[in-house]
User: What shape does this take?
Amino acid sequence: MTARQPGLPPGYRLLCYDSIGSTNEEAKHLARDGAAEATLVWALEQSAGRGRRGRAWISPRGNLYLSLILRPDCPAGSAAQLGFVAALAVGGALRAILPRIERLAYKWPNDVLINGRKIAGVLLESETLAPEKLSFVVVGVGVNLTASPQGTEFPATSILEEGLGEVMPEVMLEEFAAHFQSWNMRWQVEGFAPVRAAWLAAAAIARGEPIRVRLDALALCGRFLDIDHKGNLLLDYAGECRRIAAGEVFPAA
Assistant: This one.
């Protein structure tokens, strides 16, 4: 591995790979074998990276690819809130590294945007021991530092492509780990409220704006109302408030 070994806050166990199929797949295998909370899998490149809904995540060298194992003491239904925690950690890390960064925003459920284009995504995967009893959660994070995929349905970008300079993966990893530890601790102690407030303060779409939400079998056009106390999106659809737990958000056509 050519990158230098990053320094992480106490409690993290870092596993470094030059190349791997998928950091999330490796993290899930480790979690099933009993890997401890805060085990972090980092790879310089992935050959079989995945995004949400099974989409391929193009993973060339130069970007950041990591997966973090968590064993939160919370109901399984609350695990999705960790996607917001991770998004805030990415945003905080980017602002710490690049103080002049502008138009950094969050798109539901867990994307980070710069100038209206996707710079980072979060993939949450979990397994349960019994109904509502979590075994583990894997928080997968990809940040486009030097390159972004072309021709995607939602436009993407990278730090380098935005003219913001060069950010080494290990530097981004260090900052992400520190910010995630801070936000995760706050979530554990104070609940989702401060996470929700911080996320909404920098939401890419303001309350009342028209959006299109694509679900598995259909798309709904309406107005963005809010994020509820569980992290669900609230959509004004034809005068009815629809509560959406999973979907893809796009600007209104």
